TrEMBL record:
Domain HD: 490-606
Protein's UniProt name: Bifunctional uridylyltransferase/uridylyl-removing enzyme
Annotated family: Belongs to the GlnD family.
Organism this protein belongs to: Neorhizobium alkalisoli
GO biological process, any: regulation of nitrogen utilization
Top-rank taxon: Bacteria
Comment block on domains: Has four distinct domains: an N-terminal nucleotidyltransferase (NT) domain responsible for UTase activity, a central HD domain that encodes UR activity, and two C-terminal ACT domains that seem to have a role in glutamine sensing.
Keywords: Hydrolase, Magnesium, Multifunctional enzyme, Nucleotidyltransferase, Repeat, Transferase
Molecular function GO labels: [protein-PII] uridylyltransferase activity; phosphoric diester hydrolase activity
Sequence segments annotated as region (Disordered): 922-945
Cofactor: Mg(2+)
InterPro entries according to UniProt: ACT-like_dom_sf, ACT_dom, HD/PDEase_dom, HD_domain, NT_sf, PII_UdlTrfase/GS_AdlTrfase, Polymerase_NTP_transf_dom, UTase/UR
SUPFAM superfamilies the UniProt entry points to: ACT-like (SSF55021), Nucleotidyltransferase (SSF81301), Nucleotidyltransferase substrate binding subunit/domain (SSF81593), Poly A polymerase C-terminal region-like (SSF81891)
Length: 945
């Protein structure tokens, strides 16, 4: 709908506004400050009421572009009325200036919080009165709360500056007259067209595309970020604006419909442009209205409300917000398609115009085609693969797959003209093509390529080919998952998973993944692994477990891709179990034999174990930046080695005591420079779990730490070590054992802003606790991280010594963090006695918050449960924490009533209702003060495990 087709009259009574402003300024002269103060409430009221009406109409008709045009109309009339009032009653000379909108405002569109970009054109002979008129108008706009970008220039100055400044050139490109002397705007438009635009198309295009690329890089260089920037991000409004700037500059058009007449865009593509523009404006306007400011990032905390405002409803497998965001990413993808199509048209047009342009442009755009060995359907055009003739795809639709395959083996870039042809030929990819043996062979060859399979998959996905060739993949294109853990859409995650696998496959991941890098050359079923990695999340968004549904998809798809029955079953198993290794490593005690036997029973063979390890690494790596770290790698390696030992027959219950005894002797030997008495004492200080799970190097370090603390007479001491490879900082605490010790330490870490990744809990034979807390690293430089760890250590010591009260410091920390109301995760607590032979395993799942771990462990202490080990795992906004516990006499918790009470109390604290349940009870997170003197324990609670 064009601007003049919209009924604006209901937005504002312009005649009434003029009369109200006139009444204020008539009746004698007053200082300009008084006049401004009197005009302000009148203009502000008209603006607020007009914008509120625009919001009502947006909610009614859903048209974003119409909303943007309505707000622009409101702004135009505010400026016109204000200008008229100024020139008629304050500064008459102001009628000789011209007020024009430029930039986005020049297109006649404004979001509620957009800047108002104005150009005040002055005649060559200008006066102080003209400048005062401009100043008065600007001050009133600022008083109304608008951000005004402005420039006051003559036409000559505009022409001179636009020759050297591309930003000014772009702004003037979209100049639109608002009020004042219209002939100045017409003069500028005419001179700009003849003196600036003529013969500078290539220069402008190159500058705008370079500017776009730089903007994309700054915003993350992907249109599939789950919190996209609607204005500046890839596939956002700025990309559409860039397209139109280029088209308007080069083709001298003022509307997308003109591009259809010129044959640059098809009618369908022009409609796609208009739909994308309308949708993105609707999203942006709703964001500004909702937040009350110029918010451009579509963050989690507003996505749900925007989805509701735009009328999205839930469907099986997808919530309303996920459906909305999928639509958003599909629109962003369409913007990318339009970019390629327009660039192809520009190259074609400029190549034809080559004789009349500069040598540099000739060099860039003149076609120089060469044959490509082995094919007659494709040719090379200046380092890019393109079509030998327009009928290549229609003649044989399998040529679409051959096009990408030839590009892969030759390393050629893709010509935009060819991509345009592919976009317009997608309907040719039907069941006949999907079942074609040659097409599937080519696809599998690209997927398993030793070159860059992710690049080719991404290009096929961008062109729409991947989703057409594998319809199941097409269903997850642009699909997001509404959580803070996954940073990308599902399709982008799968392609990035293949990218991670390719890195390992090419031996480029030795430093990050030493074990996987070592195993990969010996993996026989390489094709099956690549297929499993590509398809592991292909069934996301269905109303059933995506692992099971994905395995079913793989069973149908693998034979089509050319995999034999053995490979097919392997892919099916890998997809069905693709989460098991990650969850076992991160949420289970890897030194508990039952954990390893259960996992080994599921895996059953070394081949499966190797493949599952690599798949798990690729899956985690592709979740998003910062999700993978060395600590997760270490957990996976530990699980692999322990399982390998069992699958190869090297793990037995009988050898456990012998291994512990050997470890004790090794520790004694390692302390060779100590006295015999000290060596004997320290080697007898630890129980079997410690000796079997802590490395000898760490045991020696701990022994030295304990000896130094004893010599200094310290009942309480801490030790810090950083580990850049594992991205972990280790804080070891030596203190008198206490039921609430872990709770106090966890609370102190929360108060200091540290995120706990794991906790190793041990009791020594003389009644002290030797607890090692592993926190996620924050700084890349060791010196900075050590300073941070020192602060955390001092907080732990102060709380344990009673110098600080934990509830107060946690409350202070919690106040500084905004409470997360965006996500709802029902609290869950599960108690199992089947996951360990010796311990009851308690697994809790809920929304993360400051001090949560301290609260949970305090409840477990209140319930007289002794925590042997803990696994602390965070998935975005969600935590899954696992505790291996026994009662005070070292037994499992088997009583059903007691289990029910434990679950109720844990759910209450996760729901932040524990204070009500514990009314009148002493706080479970206040440390005793002072720290008691170490005494020999009556019972060896933790150590007996």
């Amino acid at each position: 709908m064009a601007r003049h087709d919209i009924d604006f009259s209901e937005l504002m009574d312009v005649d009434r506004l003029k009369a109200d402003c006139k009444a204020v300024v008539e009746g004698g002269s007053r200082p300009s400050l008084e006049v401004r103060a009197a005009l302000l409430p009148i203009l502000r009221k008209a603006s607020v009421e007009g914008r509120e009406k625009a919001r009502e109409l947006l909610n009614k008709d859903g048209s974003g572009i119409n909303c943007a045009r309505r707000i622009s109309w409101i702004q135009d009339n505010l400026i016109c009325v204000l200008h008229q009032t100024i020139v008629e009653h304050l500064y008459p000379e102001g009628r000789d200036i011209s007020v024009a909108a430029v930039g986005g405002y020049g297109r006649g569109t404004l979001a509620p919080g957009s800047d108002i970009d104005l150009l005040f054109l002055l005649p060559e002979k200008n006066t102080e009165g003209m400048r005062k008129a401009v100043e008065f108008l600007l001050y009133l706009l600022w008083d109304m709360g608008f951000k005004v970008g402005h420039a006051t220039r003559t036409v000559e100055e505009c022409i001179r500056l636009s020759k050297t400044d591309m930003t000014i050139r772009t702004a003037i490109l979209e100049i639109r007259y608002i009020c004042g002397r219209e002939n100045l705007v017409k003069e500028l438009e005419s001179r700009f067209d003849h003196e600036i635009v003529a013969d500078t198309g290539p220069e402008f295009i190159a500058a705008k595309l370079a500017e776009r690329d730089q903007r994309h890089k700054k915003a993350g260089d992907t249109r599939y970020l789950v919190e996209p920037n609607v204005k500046e991000g890839k596939g956002g409004l700025r990309d559409l604006h860039t397209l139109f700037w280029i088209a308007k500059y080069y083709y001298r058009v003022r509307d997308t419909a003109d591009l259809v007449k010129l044959g640059v865009l098809s009618r369908e593509e022009a409609r796609s442009f208009e739909k994308a523009d309308d949708f993105l404006w609707a999203v942006r306007c709703q964001m500004h209205f909702l937040t009350g400011k110029a918010e451009e990032r579509l963050s989690f905390d507003i996505q749900r409300e925007i989805a509701t405002s735009l009328g999205y409803n839930a469907r099986p497998g997808l919530s309303a917000v996920e459906r909305f965001m999928k639509h958003y990413f599909l629109v962003a993808k369409n913007v990318g398609d339009l970019t390629r199509i327009l660039c192809a048209a520009l190259e074609d047009t400029q190549a034809k115009a080559a004789p009349g342009i500069t040598r540099r442009v000739i060099s860039r755009f003149t076609k120089r085609q060469h044959k490509i060995a082995g094919t007659v359907d494709f040719v090379e055009d200046r380092g890019r693969i393109t079509l030998a003739d327009p009928g290549v795809f229609k003649r044989d639709p399998v040529n679409i797959m051959r096009f990408f395959h030839v590009a892969d083996i030759t390393g050629l870039e893709l010509h935009p003209d060819a991509l345009k042809s592919i976009s317009r030929s997608l309907s040719l990819i039907d069941n006949t093509v999907r079942e074609d043996a040659e097409a599937n062979r080519l696809f599998l060859s690209m997927l398993t390529s030793k070159r860059d399979p992710a690049l080719m998959l991404r290009r096929m996905n961008e062109a729409g080919v991947l989703g057409r060739f594998i319809p199941e993949f097409g269903k997850v294109v642009a699909m997001m998952q509404f959580n803070m853990y996954h940073h990308y859409t599902v399709d982008e995650h799968l392609i990035r998973s293949v990218e991670a696998l390719s890195e390992i496959d090419q031996g480029r991941a030795a430093e990050i993944h030493p074990l996987a890098n070592k195993l990969m050359p010996g993996i026989e079923e390489r094709d099956a692994l690549f297929v499993a990695v590509l398809l592991h999340d292909v069934a996301k968004g269905r109303d059933e477990d995506h692992s099971i549904a994905g395995a079913r998809v793989a069973r149908r798809l693998c034979p089509r891709l050319g995999l034999n029955p053995k490979q097919t079953e392997l892919v099916v198993w890998l997809i069905e179990e693709h989460l098991v290794m990650s969850m076992t490593a991160q949420t289970r005690d890897l030194h508990d034999r039952k954990t390893i036997t259960d996992f080994a029973e599921k895996v059953q063979s070394m081949d499966r174990l190797k493949l599952l390890l690599v798949l798990t690494i690729c899956d985690i790596r592709a979740v998003g930046p910062g999700v993978w770290n060395g600590w997760k790698g270490q957990l996976l390696r530990t699980l692999y080695y322990e399982t390998e030992l069992l699958l190869s027959g090297g793990f037995s219950e009988v050898s456990r005591k012998e291994r512990a005894k050997a470890a004790e002797e090794a520790l004694s030997k390692a302390l060779g420079d100590w006295s015999q008495k000290e060596r004997r004492a320290f080697s007898k200080l630890h129980y079997q779990p410690y000796l079997l799970s802590v490395s000898l190097d760490d045991q020696v370090r701990h022994a030295q730490f304990i000896r130094e603390a004893d010599r200094a007479g310290q009942a309480l001491a801490t030790m810090v070590r950083t580990d850049s490879f594992h991205a972990i900082t280790e804080i070891t605490v030596l203190a008198p054992d206490h039921p609430r010790l872990l709770s106090i330490i966890a609370g102190a870490c929360a108060a200091a802003g540290a995120n706990i990744a794991d906790a190793q809990i041990f009791t020594t034979s003389d009644g002290r606790a030797l607890d090692t807390i592993l926190i996620n690293r924050e700084f890349s430089i060791d010196e900075d991280e050590l300073r941070r760890a020192g602060t955390i250590s001092r907080m732990i010591e102060d709380v344990l010594a009673g110098k600080k009260r934990l509830p107060e410091v946690i409350a202070t920390r919690a106040k500084s963090k905004k409470k997360n109301k965006t996500f709802q995760i029902p609290p869950s607590a599960i108690i199992s006695n089947g996951l360990s032979n010796k311990f009851t395993v308690i697994e809790v799942e809920c929304l993360d918050r400051t001090g949560l771990l301290a609260d949970i462990t305090a409840v477990l202490a209140d319930l007289s449960l002794d925590i042997h080990s803990a696994r602390i795992t965070t998935f975005g906004e969600k935590i899954i924490d696992t505790f291996y516990v026994v009662d005070l006499v070292g037994h499992k918790v088997t009583n059903e009533n007691r289990q029910g009470n434990i679950i109720a109390r844990l759910k209450a604290v996760m729901s932040e209702q524990e204070d009500e349940m514990r009314a009148g009870m002493p706080s479970g997170i206040i440390a005793p003060s002072p720290v008691p003197t170490p005494v020999a324990p009556a019972k060896k609670s933790k150590a007996s495990a």
